[in-house]
Structure formats: C-alpha cells, structure tokens
Queue: 3 jobs
Job 1
Amino acid sequence: MGITGEIKKISSSTLDLFIKDPYLVDAFFDAKCLPESPYWQREPYWTGEYAEVAKQNARAIFGNTPAGRSKQWKNTYDWQALEELFLSEWENPELDLDKSWEEITFLLAGYIATYYNTPQGKIPELIVAKGYEKDFLPFLVIKNSQWDGKPLVNAFGAGKDLYFDRDYGPVRYLQAGDEVRQILDGLLELSQEGFKNRFIKESQKPNPVPWIDWSDEEMIDYMTDYYNEIVDYYETAVKEQKALLLYLT
C-alpha cells in the first residue's frame, strides 16, 4: 500500500471549526466513508463486502466521543448539521498524490521530507533551527533559489499543524486567500518548463538525491502530470476562496 499524500479543499468556515476543536477533524474523515458520502460515487472499483464494511464502520463511529474528551463532547454539536456539512465538503474530491508526494516535495520545494537534516536531503539554502523535528519544512515559497534561480514551492509540505495525529502525522492547513495564493504564484513562476528542467538537472548529476529512483524513464512524465494537477487544484482553490488541508494517509 504505502504512505500516500493528499490535498483537500474545504471552506474557511469548516477550517475555523477544526481550529477551534481539532477533534472534529476525525469526524470529518469518518464522514468521507459514510454510506451517503459522494466519495463512493468516485470509487466504482471499491465495491462488495469491504466497501459495505467501511460504510457501516463509518456510520458506527461518526461523532463518537474521542479519546481525551469528556462524554459531554458528543452533546456539544448538532451532529446532523455537521454530517450534512462534512458530506457537502466531500462533494469536491481531494487531490491524491499517491506515493509520489516525496518526489514532488523534493522537485517543488528542494528537500526530502524527514531527511532534510542530511547533506543529501536538501539544497544548501534550506537551513532550519537546530532541533527542528517535524516531517516537513515550514516555508511557503522561497524565490530565486540557489538551485536553479526558480522558486522553491512547498505546495505539499507547507501549512500549520492542526495537532491532530492521523496515521502518519498531523493534518496541516493553509488559510484561504494569501497563503494559498502565494503557493499558486510560486507554482506558476516555476512553470512546467522550469519543473521539467529541474528534474533533468538533478537526474543528470553524478550523485543525485539517493531517495529517488532516477532510473525510471517515465518518471519525468508522471511527475509533470502531478505538477499540472497541483497547479489546477490550487487555481481552483484560489478561485473558490477555499482553504486547504494537507496530510499523509
């Protein structure tokens, strides 16, 4: 299976709920698999017993009192209204980067997640404070990089933590407006041509970054496809004034 990366558009009002009460993030992801969820319309190949079990499990746990909260937490919210809200959010699909989020983070932002403290894990200008132990670096965009003069764009690694631990670390968020716009502007300035040139430049080094399999002849094509999908997703988020969640699953 492997660890996959996803980006999800949500409304600013829903993000405000999460910031106020991060435990609601769990309910949000539970709602994705509810029997009524639009998610199932986009998953025609996930059918049969496993799909039905997933649906019923989601129904059974949606709105349950999370660990660390009192029993009164369940009575704090109108769960029917929250269910309708969360299901409406899932009408817009997430952007699935599959297992390529690590390569994408390097090619866009210049570092390998969790390995940026090694000499091979980042370009020289990405220096962080000693003792920084998060999976991703915190910047949005660094212009005129030492790498190739193009911006470093942290399109998957950016965002503030919601301090809610999914399977592989916290869900992070970008606020609608300026934060999402900065990333989009950086992506557009980098450009598809710049992205491909960056890939070629690194792959042709005598000792390219060792965590990426540069021998895959088709990688440049599907990495470029991911770049274009990310640009499209950010463009839509800016147009619709959406916030973004970024997470591993």
Job 2
Amino acid sequence: MPLSEQEQRMLDEMERHLLQHDADVVSAPSGDRALSYRNLIYGALLLLAGVGGLIAAVVASGDLGATWSIVIGVVAFLAMLGGAMLAFTPVRRASLDVPPDASSAGHSTRPHDTSFMDRMNDRWDRRQDER
C-alpha cells in the first residue's frame, strides 16, 4: 500500500533529520582505530598456546611437582591474557592504509579507503540530490 502525501513528507523529514543529526553519531565510534587481522591471528595463536600450556601444567603436575606446575600455569595464563589483549587492541588506521603511489588507474579515491558509513552517506546524498 503506497504512503499518503503527508506520510511521505513526514518520512522524508525524519530521514533528513536523521541524516543531519545522527549520521555523525553512528560513524563516530570507528574513529581512526581498527582491529588488525594480523594481531587477531597472532593473539589467537598466543591464546591457544596459553591454553595448551595450562593443560600441560595440569597434566604434568604429578611429575614436576606443585611449584613448577603453578609456575607453568601462571605463565600460560599470562600468555592467554596477552593473546586476548593483542587480538582485541585496536591499532591506528594509518598503519593499515595503502601507500598513495599504489593507486590504480589514476583514481584518487578507492572504495576501501573510506568507511562503510561514509560510502552509505555519499550514496544517500546522491539519491537526495536526484530528487
């Protein structure tokens, strides 16, 4: 069922208001920091190594004695904690950007250089300009 003129005007007004006032709020948390896939992988590997060390400490507690199994367990826990921190600590986006001389076909901007919200806002603006 199509919208009436009044409903369409109200919807357009709400969209404009949302675009003007809330678009910055939605895109603000991203900032200039992002998660690094390399750090995620290294962190996950360190976390798995810590879990393995913790299991090894429990298994070897009878052979090595209580003191060494506690030391191995603490080191394994610290490795797990370090892996989690490494995996989920954001890095600056400047280190993730492609160098400017690597641009293809002379285009000044590539789609992956801008954030998802910026591209959606640009598409929205183009649609609104066409009306």
Job 3
Amino acid sequence: MASGVTKSSTSNGYPPKAQLQITVLSAKLKENKKNWFAPSPYVEVTVDGQSKKTEKCNSTHSPKWKQPLTVIVTPFSKLVFRVWSHQTLKADVFLGMAMLDISETLKSNNMKISDVVQSLQLHADREHSDVVGDLSVCLDGMTVDPEMFASAEADHYSTSNGESLQHNGDPAVRSSRDSSPAVDTDHRSSPSTRRTVSSKGSPSVGGRPARPPRPSRPPPPTPRRPTSSPGGT
C-alpha cells in the first residue's frame, strides 16, 4: 500500500517521514576464483538506524529474491545495501555494497517513487574502488509535494548552519553576562584586599578614598591613640 508525504505531514515533525517498500529483486556477483564454492548471498538494507534482511539464496552467483522490505524514510534518507554470504560455522563474508540517495531518486522521477527499478553497482568498499557485481531493486510507495520538498530541502541544508550560529551565539551572550559581574566584584574586592593587607583598621581607612592605594599612610592613626590615652588619665 503506497503512502505519500504531503504538506500536512510537515506539521507533525521535520523531516517528514513515509513508508517505503523496497523489493530486492536479484544480483549478479563476480566469481571469485580463490573460492571453489559459490556463495549463499543475502541482502541487508540499512537506513536511519533500521536494518532489514532478505532470505539467503544457496550456492549461486546470480541470486534472485524478489523479497519486499518496508522501512520508514524521509526524502533525504540514504539507503545502504550490503550483500553478504551466509556461513554456517564462521562469520558471514562481505561481498559488496551499494548506496542510493532517495532525494536524487525523487528528483529524477517527478517527486514520485512508484515501482521504480534501480540497478546499482556493488563495490568492495565505500571508496568504490572495485566493482564486484550488480544489484537490482524496486522502490515503491512514496510521493512528495514539490513545494514541500523544495522548502524541506532548504531547511535541511540550512539547519546545520543555523544550529552552529545559535550555539556560537549563546556562549557569547553568557560570557558577556558573566563577565560584567566579575568585573564589578573585582573592582569591589580589590580595595578591600588592599585595605586588609595594609592595616587591620579597615573601617577607619575606608572613609578616606585617597589612602587605600598607599599602604604607608595607614600607620599615622596608630600614634594618635597613645597620645590621646595619657591625656585622658
């Protein structure tokens, strides 16, 4: 059953999601002269954290599955196809991989994926250095409104820049706010520290703003106390 991506779906979240049916049709694998036995291949499809697998085909270089797999995708998801050879007593052997960009497929099919057959080259690694075979798949069940896609595509490519600007802006605001009280406390604390270091009679010195910068002036009040005390007696 086909499911479409419409304008209304964008209000439920970004990016819009839809069910996509992937039918893994067949593959043609190059023969490896080092191995006497033919592989038992199966296909693993991964997209946006999902993983689906086909059944294995026993001992063949030309497997045919015609097996449908349903996944949840967005218009900007990328499908990764990995072909493995099933092994009974040891780990499965990697045979090749292919990638498919859904956005490019939508653009080349007038924003509608309906029974679109794709022939993909299988490579031995992500660098696409060595072609090891071909994989045929059929995609169905996704329709995207062109206006919605254009808007979503603009948001998709601008989101990363917007987040970086926002993250860069927050520390600047925080640092300016944090620095202002820090400067005030420094100005307020610096005289007090000077007063305490200069003499213990900080209250008497605090009334005279000219004396805190000079630690030599606070001693004069001390000789006045002994002179006044004999006068009292």
